[in-house]
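Quick log. Single chain, no ligands specified.
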Amino acid sequence: MPRTLRVIVCECIHSDIIPQDVKRDVSAKLHEAGIAVDTVPDLCGLAARRDPMLEQVARADSIRIVACFPRAVKWLFDAAGAPLPAEDVGILNMRTQSAEEIVRMIVQAAEGIRPQNRIATWVPRSTVLGRPCSTSKLCLNVPPQPLPEPRDWVPWFPVIDRDRCTECRQCMNFCLFGVYGVSDEGEVEVRNPEKCKTNCPACARLCPQVAIIFPKYGSGPICGDDVREEDTKRGPVNVDVASLVGGDVYDRLRRRRKAGRERFSTKRDDEPSLAERAGAFKEVLDKLEVPPEVRQSICSDACSCGCVSNSPDSPEGPDCSCNDPDADDTDGKANCGCNR
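-> predicted structure:
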């Protein structure tokens, strides 16, 4: 049976981590070389929604994926339920390789494979851009067209490297947003990728095995770059969120929301360890390099100072609406480090 070749090019439309000229030149040069290509807006987005296209790609005899770091791409496919085969798979990295090098490697892979078996199934065979196209040959005379991609959510979420993960569950125990869960097989899994906070790599920073990848992150190994020996020698960060916020996390959030609604309440939280926990929580956020917008999101549920804050998307803005005048630090900021 004739061998088939699938070539996928990721546009990574939600991030600027890949130079625009590289993306443009790769697509143009592959078109000039007569290579049929599926151009997708964002590979992370396809993986998050478990798009059946990825399973189709994984079944091809020969696969070339033009995207980012190979470790990230491998585990994105795995997370989508479409693990890549062990043989004849090439992942080309537009973050580190030139367009010329990428195209040369794909052209070499296409040698010996007849043009009609260089598959790009996303481009309709009947018409392309309104022009008729014979079903007996590929539409190689038109540039590849990207898939539509929902734009109301940036596909930023963790990807688990199963070769490194030891199931310590630190990531799941740390995350307050319900991103992680446990599968029927007892493995930690990314259950709700859309709940992850954009640009926050905190769970990856505390993973002792360097097993968590954020493909859109700016540097390695979190971006999916190879894990170096010095990366594995860093001290593990053990974080007990319950101890930082005091007891059961979600019960505490519920109590603080209720207290915040009692606008003129004279009740006070007299726990002597509250300030100490708040300071510890801020220290953890600093160490994990949690970005300001994510801190505001955390505070929108419950500030460490005990107030209930506005959502960053609310008409009043992201500032806290604290009812406790004694909860402020001397610098006028909430104990968690967000701007009030």
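Residues 41 and 149 are 6 Å apart (CA to CA).
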